[in-house]
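Reopening: structure tokens for the pyridoxal-5'-phosphate complex, inputs below.
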Amino acid sequence: MRATIDRLELEKNTMQKYGYRVVDAIVEHWVHQKEKLPVTHATREEMDSLFLESAPEMGDDMNKVLDFVLKNVMNESTNLSHPKSFAFVPGPSNYISVMADALATGFNIFSGGWSGSPAAAELEIVTMNWLLKIFGFPVKQGGGIFTSGGSMANLTAIAAARRLKCGDEFSNAIIYMSDQAHSSNIKAIRVLGFRKEQVRIIPTDMEFKISLNKLKNAIAKDRIKGGQPFCLIASAGTTNTGTVDPLEDMAKICEEEGIWFHIDGAYGGAAILSDKGKKLLKGIDKANSLTVDPHKWFYQPYEIGCLLVRDHRWLKNTFTEKPEYLRDIEGNTSEINFYDHGIQLTRRFRALKFYMSVKTFGLKVFRNAVSYNISLAERVEQELRISENWEIVSPATLAVINFRYNPINEDLKPGQIDQINEYISKKVLVSRKALLVTTILNKQVVLRMCLINPRTELMDVLETINLCESFGIQKLKEGFIK
Ligand SMILES: *Cc1c(COP(=O)(O)O)cnc(C)c1O
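Re-run output (same inputs, fresh job):
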């Protein structure tokens, strides 16, 4: 008989011991992550000197390899789930979903077609129905698919929009979005083979919302020139400022013009779970398609994005090999092959973590966490407003806030304010005590906090602000570059 190792197998108790070590390491990380520094720096040279080697012909001791990885990989990565990770859009995650992912991978369930795993497909249908209901989409007619993330959801949406609106002839098709729309939309448009002239970037107003007047002008002029306006992308929570475009007005324009209405709610969509967010997101239910990103504010570990559509046949008619334009009218309760609803054939079982975490915690816990995040950002805004050192550049919106160091007694010039805020962010990163970076708003350098981690306390933010102030004072002493 061939040896166990030749079947890439291990003895049962070896597997158990190894597995318990892995679980123990994950639990230790969860329990102690707050005490660790969120930021890691390393150069390529440093990483090469640790890891670079040829693929070894002979294996090594499993515990030795695990020790090496725990020490040098897991504990030497920047941690976007850390309560002091404020940059980009953090990924707070939750432990139930982490274990669900371990199960999904452990059983290696193929989540492509119904026959591959009926239960996996069913859970994707069930969780998709939860999301359709949460966002006010028609549950019976609507549909959707879990993707690797928001970028893939946007790509899937734009592919469907083009298929449904233009068919095979899209050389004059034009797509619209604001200058605050997420870069993944531009990437998707490039992947789909549109030319640069087929994209209209519409300016935003002082509050970073798309200018409706400029949008209407652009559509009208494009029609005169023989263009075919086919898709408008709204942001429901821009990544920069959390701003929600005027969704209801945009929906109306799309209806009048016969344009596909896609909403990118990758970051902000989940705010619908709170009363405040629900008000801000009014009109989100009017989209043809909606991107949300559970690995952001639905607290799921990477990777899980999601695309919802008003009519499940739109996805099927775009991605299936044999479109059944007329026959498939029975609603999404049928046995769905998700490989017919998106780009991937072999798919990991993403629905499981969403399902298990919502079943375990209940939606109410998610609602409370999102409400907490929104009110925490508002509380931070209050603190900064009454400080003589800080200026709010964009107020707390969907748990994002932009501000800058600009002491009232210093009378700094615009260029100096930019320099000092860049300096603060750099110094904070070097200290590794918080993940905080700048962004540009109205050509000004500002600090940005995205407060979607339910484990972030007001104290975590205030400590970070104090740290920033100490670096601000340092820069004032040091002086400015001319
Ligand atoms: C994060 C984000 C995306 C991209 O999502 P990924 O999951 O990173 O691929 C798209 N749009 C918006 C508004 C985002 O915030």
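The two ends are 77 Å apart (CA to CA). Residues 89, 149-151, 154, 182, 184, 235, 239, 264, 266-267, 293, 305 surround pyridoxal-5'-phosphate (CB under 6 Å). Marking as resolved unless the reporter disagrees.
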